[in-house]
């Protein structure tokens, strides 16, 4: 069960060399967390292992972003995203994440891998307003249609820029 944490306005900024690593099973339960993850998110290994990865979910993140994540992983593709996460104290930290399926020798997906590092302030200035708009679209659409609404908004933006999700994310 995820404890209810009240978000604060305090940002935890990663160092340039910080690389956060975690692994999950197929359901998104954490099976490995490196020390940097524990330090930044302020959890012990015991707190993290076997917990859903949404333990660090921040309420400012639109649900549509995670729908794209899971759809991409289920298609056995890697996924790139900028993510606002929350520490155990409610502080926030931004990361650039690369999440990939973890294959066994037979090519079967046995879990997922995530490697995250610091996000550039110039990138944050582009992505934060987009997430804010997506979140607002979700609020207006209501829970049943939230993801549909925010993904449509994002796709509309990408179309008007003449780009794809991955090209856009890697270009900013
Ligand atoms: C390997 C891996 C890493 C993930 N990392 C994060 C993360 O850093 N932050 C996050 O909010 N969700 C992350 N997720 C997605 C969560 O599993 C979950 O889908 C998301 O937090 C939305 O949770 P909710 O459906 O309870 O709102 C990750 C999933 C996987 C498979």
What does this structure look like?
With 172 residues, the chain is α+β, with helices and mostly antiparallel strands. It contains six helices and five strands. A five-stranded antiparallel beta sheet has the order 2-1-5-4-3. A hairpin with a 5-residue loop joins β3 (79-86) and β4. It is globular and about 45 Å long. The mean pLDDT is 96. It binds flavin mononucleotide.
List the main descriptive attributes of the protein structure presented here.
5-stranded antiparallel β-sheet; 5 strands; 39% helix; 6 helices; binds flavin mononucleotide; alpha+beta; 23% strand; 172 residues
Produce the secondary structure layout.
Blueprint: E1 19-24, E2 30-33, H1 35-41, H2 45-48, H3 63-74, E3 79-86, E4 92-103, E5 109-117, H4 121-141, H5 146-161, H6 165-171
Antiparallel strand pairs: 1-2, 1-5, 3-4, 4-5
The protein binds flavin mononucleotide.
The site of flavin mononucleotide has 17 residues, from strand 1, helix 3, strand 3 and strand 5.
Largest sheet: 5 strands, antiparallel
Overall, the morphology is globular
Task: List ligands, each type once.
Answer: flavin mononucleotide
Percent of residues in helices comes to 25-40%
Counted beta strands? 5
Helical stretch tally: 6
- Integer average pLDDT: 96
Rg, alpha carbons: 16 Å
Give the structural class: alpha+beta
Order of helices and strands: EEHHHEEEHHH
Largest sheet, spatial ordering of strands: 2-1-5-4-3
Low-confidence stretches: none
Taken as a percent bin, the fraction of beta residues is 15-25%
| Amino-to-carboxy terminus distance | 36 Å
């Amino acid at each position: 069960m995820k404890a209810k944490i009240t978000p604060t306005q305090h940002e935890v900024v990663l160092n340039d060399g910080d690389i956060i690593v975690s692994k999950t099973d197929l359901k998104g339960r954490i099976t490995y967390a490196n020390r940097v993850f524990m330090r930044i998110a302020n959890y012990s290994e015991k707190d993290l292992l076997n917990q859903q990865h949404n333990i660090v979910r921040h309420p400012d993140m639109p649900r549509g972003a995670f729908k794209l994540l899971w759809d991409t992983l289920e298609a056995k593709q890697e996924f790139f995203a900028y993510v606002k996460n929350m520490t155990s104290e409610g502080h926030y930290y931004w990361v650039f994440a690369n999440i990939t399926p973890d294959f066994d020798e037979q090519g079967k997906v046995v879990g997922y891998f995530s490697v995250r590092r610091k996000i550039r302030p110039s990138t944050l200035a582009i992505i934060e307003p987009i997430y804010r708009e997506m979140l607002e679209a979700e609020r207006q659409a209501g829970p049943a249609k939230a993801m549909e609404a925010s993904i449509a908004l994002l796709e509309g933006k990408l179309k008007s820029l003449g780009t794809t999700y991955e090209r856009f994310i890697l270009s900013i």
